[in-house]
Amino acid sequence: MSTTVPTYHQLDLDAEGFLQKPEQWNEDIAREIAAENGIALTDAHWKVVRFMRDRFLSTGNAPTIRTLGKESGVSVKELYLLFPKAPAKLAAKIGGIPKPHGCI
Predict the structure, then answer these.
(1) Coil, strand or helix at 13
(2) Rounded distance, CA 42 to CA 29, Å?
(3) 99 domain residue, yes or no
(4) Does residue 29 form part of some domain?
């Protein structure tokens, strides 16, 4: 019986599984990471993931949960429904960017 290593695990990852090179990211990788975390990406998920990536790529910093709730158009309450337990951290991971500062 052979097992296939998911594409995501063949990329440059840190100890927590965040991509080290955001340029390696694509939407297929995002779907793979989301699936590993029990998430089927909807339009609302993509809105947050794209906001996270755009903010990181333009500023060099991943937005925090507070920034997401204020600026993404998705409330903090909805963020927790979309990305349970750690919305900013999980959305960043799915978006192929580093973990936001302040995330445990």
Answers:
(1) strand
(2) 15
(3) no
(4) yes
Q: pTM for the complete prediction?
A: 0.87
CATH number of 52's domain: 1.10.10.370
Would you state the structure tokens that stand for residue 68, as one six-digit string? 């997401």
Q: In a structure prediction context, what are the per-residue pLDDT tens digits for the chain, which is 104 residues long?
A: 444 445 766 888 888 889 989 999 999 999 999 999 999 999 999 999 999 999 999 999 999 899 999 999 999 999 999 999 899 999 999 999 988 866 65
Q: Which sequence positions are flagged as catalytic?
A: 103
Q: Kindly report the three-state secondary structure assignment for every residue of 21-63.
A: CHHHCCHHHHHHHHHHCCCCCCHHHHHHHHHHHHHHHHHCCCC
Contact 9, 39 (CB under 8 A): no
For residue 104, give the DSSP letter. Answer: -
Domain count, the chain: 1
